[in-house]
Amino acid sequence: MARRKLIYEGKAKILYEGPEPGTYVQYFKDDATAGNGAKKDVIEGKGVLNNRLSEFFMLGLANIGIPTHFIRRLNMREQLIRQVEIIPLEVIVRNFAAGSMAKRLGMEEGAALPRPIVEFSYKDDKLGDPLVPEEYIIAFGWASQQDMDDIVSMALRVNDFMSGVMYGVGIKLIDFKIEIGRVWDNEFPRLVVADEISPDCCRLWDVETGQKLDKDVFRQDLGNLADAYTEVARRLGVLPSNVTHRPKPTLIN
Predict the structure, then answer these.
(1) Domain-embedded: residue 118
(2) Residues 95 and 43 in one domain
Protein backbone atom coordinates (compact mmCIF):
# COMPACT_ATOMS: atom_id res chain seq x y z
CA MET A 1 0.00 0.00 0.00
CA ALA A 2 1.35 3.42 -0.92
CA ARG A 3 2.18 5.71 1.98
CA ARG A 4 -0.61 8.21 2.57
CA LYS A 5 -0.72 11.40 4.56
CA LEU A 6 -2.29 10.92 7.97
CA ILE A 7 -4.87 13.60 8.71
CA TYR A 8 -6.31 12.49 12.05
CA GLU A 9 -6.45 9.40 14.26
CA GLY A 10 -9.29 8.88 16.69
CA LYS A 11 -10.28 6.06 19.00
CA ALA A 12 -12.03 3.98 16.33
CA LYS A 13 -11.02 5.45 12.95
CA ILE A 14 -8.15 7.02 11.03
CA LEU A 15 -8.49 9.69 8.34
CA TYR A 16 -6.00 9.80 5.49
CA GLU A 17 -5.65 12.25 2.64
CA GLY A 18 -7.91 11.15 -0.19
CA PRO A 19 -6.97 10.45 -3.81
CA GLU A 20 -8.93 13.47 -5.06
CA PRO A 21 -9.16 17.06 -3.78
CA GLY A 22 -11.80 17.46 -1.10
CA THR A 23 -11.79 13.78 -0.09
CA TYR A 24 -10.52 11.64 2.76
CA VAL A 25 -10.04 7.91 3.17
CA GLN A 26 -11.69 6.77 6.41
CA TYR A 27 -10.15 3.63 7.94
CA PHE A 28 -12.07 1.64 10.57
CA LYS A 29 -9.93 0.17 13.35
CA ASP A 30 -10.63 -2.87 15.51
CA ASP A 31 -10.09 -0.83 18.68
CA ALA A 32 -12.94 -0.66 21.18
CA THR A 33 -13.08 1.97 23.91
CA ALA A 34 -15.50 2.97 26.64
CA GLY A 35 -15.61 5.67 29.28
CA ASN A 36 -13.80 8.17 27.03
CA GLY A 37 -10.94 5.72 26.57
CA ALA A 38 -10.73 4.44 30.15
CA LYS A 39 -11.50 0.91 28.96
CA LYS A 40 -9.76 -0.37 25.83
CA ASP A 41 -9.45 -3.56 23.82
CA VAL A 42 -8.94 -4.77 20.28
CA ILE A 43 -11.90 -6.73 18.90
CA GLU A 44 -11.02 -8.77 15.82
CA GLY A 45 -13.26 -7.89 12.86
CA LYS A 46 -14.98 -4.91 14.51
CA GLY A 47 -13.60 -2.41 11.99
CA VAL A 48 -14.68 -4.58 9.07
CA LEU A 49 -18.21 -4.83 10.44
CA ASN A 50 -18.52 -1.12 11.23
CA ASN A 51 -17.25 -0.19 7.78
CA ARG A 52 -19.86 -2.35 6.11
CA LEU A 53 -22.69 -1.36 8.47
CA SER A 54 -21.93 2.35 8.16
CA GLU A 55 -21.96 1.98 4.37
CA PHE A 56 -25.37 0.30 4.61
CA PHE A 57 -26.87 3.11 6.69
CA MET A 58 -25.25 5.97 4.77
CA LEU A 59 -26.54 4.60 1.47
CA GLY A 60 -29.98 4.17 3.01
CA LEU A 61 -30.02 7.79 4.17
CA ALA A 62 -28.93 9.00 0.73
CA ASN A 63 -31.78 7.02 -0.83
CA ILE A 64 -34.33 8.99 1.19
CA GLY A 65 -32.70 12.34 0.45
CA ILE A 66 -30.56 12.87 3.56
CA PRO A 67 -27.09 14.04 2.45
CA THR A 68 -24.01 12.36 3.92
CA HIS A 69 -20.24 12.57 3.53
CA PHE A 70 -20.10 9.00 2.18
CA ILE A 71 -18.93 8.50 -1.41
CA ARG A 72 -18.16 4.79 -1.66
CA ARG A 73 -16.60 1.86 0.17
CA LEU A 74 -13.06 1.16 -1.03
CA ASN A 75 -12.36 -2.18 0.63
CA MET A 76 -13.09 -4.13 3.80
CA ARG A 77 -11.89 -1.39 6.14
CA GLU A 78 -11.91 1.85 4.18
CA GLN A 79 -14.38 4.34 2.75
CA LEU A 80 -13.92 7.32 0.47
CA ILE A 81 -15.68 10.29 2.05
CA ARG A 82 -16.09 13.98 1.39
CA GLN A 83 -13.95 16.37 3.38
CA VAL A 84 -16.24 18.24 5.77
CA GLU A 85 -15.96 20.75 8.56
CA ILE A 86 -17.28 18.89 11.59
CA ILE A 87 -19.57 20.86 13.89
CA PRO A 88 -18.14 20.13 17.39
CA LEU A 89 -21.29 18.45 18.64
CA GLU A 90 -22.61 14.98 19.19
CA VAL A 91 -26.27 14.96 18.18
CA ILE A 92 -28.07 12.41 20.34
CA VAL A 93 -31.58 11.10 19.63
CA ARG A 94 -33.30 9.12 22.38
CA ASN A 95 -36.41 6.97 21.96
CA PHE A 96 -36.13 5.12 25.29
CA ALA A 97 -34.43 5.96 28.58
CA ALA A 98 -30.98 4.39 28.86
CA GLY A 99 -27.40 5.17 29.76
CA SER A 100 -26.65 8.63 31.09
CA MET A 101 -30.22 9.86 30.65
CA ALA A 102 -31.63 7.07 32.83
CA LYS A 103 -29.01 7.83 35.49
CA ARG A 104 -29.54 11.61 35.40
CA LEU A 105 -33.31 11.38 35.75
CA GLY A 106 -33.60 8.20 37.81
CA MET A 107 -35.57 6.49 35.07
CA GLU A 108 -35.92 2.78 34.47
CA GLU A 109 -33.70 1.52 31.65
CA GLY A 110 -35.84 0.92 28.59
CA ALA A 111 -38.73 3.18 29.59
CA ALA A 112 -40.38 4.59 26.48
CA LEU A 113 -40.14 8.35 26.10
CA PRO A 114 -43.25 10.36 25.17
CA ARG A 115 -41.52 11.41 21.94
CA PRO A 116 -38.00 11.28 20.50
CA ILE A 117 -35.72 13.68 22.37
CA VAL A 118 -32.76 15.39 20.69
CA GLU A 119 -29.80 16.35 22.89
CA PHE A 120 -26.42 17.89 22.15
CA SER A 121 -23.06 17.29 23.74
CA TYR A 122 -19.88 19.27 23.17
CA LYS A 123 -17.22 17.05 21.59
CA ASP A 124 -14.32 17.14 24.04
CA ASP A 125 -13.11 13.93 25.68
CA LYS A 126 -11.15 15.83 28.31
CA LEU A 127 -14.40 17.44 29.50
CA GLY A 128 -16.40 14.23 29.20
CA ASP A 129 -18.47 15.44 26.22
CA PRO A 130 -20.80 17.56 28.41
CA LEU A 131 -24.41 18.16 27.47
CA VAL A 132 -24.98 21.69 26.16
CA PRO A 133 -28.20 23.62 25.44
CA GLU A 134 -28.92 25.27 22.11
CA GLU A 135 -28.24 28.69 23.69
CA TYR A 136 -24.60 27.73 24.28
CA ILE A 137 -24.22 26.36 20.77
CA ILE A 138 -25.53 29.53 19.15
CA ALA A 139 -23.76 31.93 21.57
CA PHE A 140 -20.36 30.30 21.02
CA GLY A 141 -20.82 30.23 17.26
CA TRP A 142 -20.64 26.46 16.82
CA ALA A 143 -23.84 26.60 14.78
CA SER A 144 -26.47 29.19 13.86
CA GLN A 145 -30.14 29.09 14.77
CA GLN A 146 -30.94 27.99 11.22
CA ASP A 147 -28.29 25.28 11.49
CA MET A 148 -29.85 24.04 14.71
CA ASP A 149 -33.31 23.90 13.17
CA ASP A 150 -31.90 21.94 10.25
CA ILE A 151 -29.88 19.63 12.49
CA VAL A 152 -32.89 18.74 14.63
CA SER A 153 -34.98 18.08 11.53
CA MET A 154 -32.23 15.95 10.02
CA ALA A 155 -31.69 14.00 13.25
CA LEU A 156 -35.39 13.16 13.52
CA ARG A 157 -35.48 12.01 9.90
CA VAL A 158 -32.47 9.79 10.56
CA ASN A 159 -34.30 8.43 13.60
CA ASP A 160 -37.41 7.61 11.57
CA PHE A 161 -35.32 5.76 9.01
CA MET A 162 -33.14 3.92 11.53
CA SER A 163 -36.05 2.97 13.79
CA GLY A 164 -37.99 1.49 10.89
CA VAL A 165 -35.05 -0.44 9.47
CA MET A 166 -34.12 -1.86 12.86
CA TYR A 167 -37.65 -2.75 13.92
CA GLY A 168 -38.06 -4.59 10.63
CA VAL A 169 -35.31 -7.02 11.71
CA GLY A 170 -36.47 -7.36 15.31
CA ILE A 171 -34.23 -4.72 16.87
CA LYS A 172 -35.35 -1.79 19.01
CA LEU A 173 -33.45 1.47 18.44
CA ILE A 174 -33.01 2.79 21.97
CA ASP A 175 -30.87 5.81 21.09
CA PHE A 176 -28.04 6.86 18.82
CA LYS A 177 -25.65 9.71 18.14
CA ILE A 178 -24.52 11.23 14.88
CA GLU A 179 -22.14 13.98 13.85
CA ILE A 180 -22.95 16.71 11.38
CA GLY A 181 -20.51 18.40 9.03
CA ARG A 182 -20.55 21.33 6.62
CA VAL A 183 -19.65 21.14 2.96
CA TRP A 184 -19.57 24.02 0.52
CA ASP A 185 -21.28 23.99 -2.85
CA ASN A 186 -20.44 27.18 -4.74
CA GLU A 187 -19.63 28.90 -1.43
CA PHE A 188 -22.99 27.87 0.01
CA PRO A 189 -22.69 25.75 3.20
CA ARG A 190 -24.70 22.55 3.36
CA LEU A 191 -25.15 20.22 6.32
CA VAL A 192 -24.47 16.50 5.91
CA VAL A 193 -24.38 13.46 8.18
CA ALA A 194 -20.71 12.63 8.79
CA ASP A 195 -18.44 10.32 10.81
CA GLU A 196 -20.19 6.91 10.93
CA ILE A 197 -23.43 5.17 11.81
CA SER A 198 -22.76 1.78 13.39
CA PRO A 199 -23.47 -0.18 16.58
CA ASP A 200 -20.59 1.81 18.10
CA CYS A 201 -22.87 4.85 18.22
CA CYS A 202 -26.30 3.24 18.76
CA ARG A 203 -28.05 1.32 21.49
CA LEU A 204 -29.74 -1.69 19.93
CA TRP A 205 -31.88 -4.18 21.87
CA ASP A 206 -33.56 -7.31 20.61
CA VAL A 207 -37.30 -6.61 20.50
CA GLU A 208 -38.32 -9.88 22.15
CA THR A 209 -35.52 -10.68 24.58
CA GLY A 210 -34.01 -7.27 25.31
CA GLN A 211 -30.54 -8.64 24.49
CA LYS A 212 -28.09 -5.82 23.86
CA LEU A 213 -26.46 -5.79 20.43
CA ASP A 214 -24.34 -2.65 20.72
CA LYS A 215 -21.22 -1.33 22.48
CA ASP A 216 -22.87 -1.79 25.88
CA VAL A 217 -21.85 -5.45 25.45
CA PHE A 218 -18.26 -4.23 25.78
CA ARG A 219 -18.97 -1.51 28.35
CA GLN A 220 -20.81 -3.90 30.67
CA ASP A 221 -18.88 -7.13 29.92
CA LEU A 222 -21.97 -8.87 28.57
CA GLY A 223 -20.23 -11.11 26.04
CA ASN A 224 -18.37 -10.95 22.75
CA LEU A 225 -18.76 -7.60 20.99
CA ALA A 226 -17.94 -9.01 17.54
CA ASP A 227 -20.70 -11.61 17.95
CA ALA A 228 -23.22 -8.87 18.78
CA TYR A 229 -22.23 -6.73 15.78
CA THR A 230 -22.23 -9.80 13.54
CA GLU A 231 -25.81 -10.52 14.59
CA VAL A 232 -26.88 -6.98 13.65
CA ALA A 233 -25.14 -7.28 10.28
CA ARG A 234 -26.66 -10.71 9.65
CA ARG A 235 -30.20 -9.50 10.34
CA LEU A 236 -29.73 -6.50 8.04
CA GLY A 237 -28.44 -8.72 5.25
CA VAL A 238 -24.94 -7.28 5.36
CA LEU A 239 -23.53 -10.73 6.19
CA PRO A 240 -24.62 -14.11 4.82
CA SER A 241 -27.36 -15.60 7.00
CA ASN A 242 -25.24 -18.67 7.85
CA VAL A 243 -22.52 -16.66 9.58
CA THR A 244 -22.67 -17.46 13.31
CA HIS A 245 -19.10 -16.89 14.49
CA ARG A 246 -16.67 -14.02 14.71
CA PRO A 247 -16.29 -12.40 11.30
CA LYS A 248 -13.36 -12.94 8.98
CA PRO A 249 -12.65 -10.33 6.32
CA THR A 250 -13.24 -12.79 3.46
CA LEU A 251 -16.86 -13.22 4.53
CA ILE A 252 -17.93 -9.67 3.73
CA ASN A 253 -15.48 -8.49 1.08
Answers:
(1) yes
(2) no
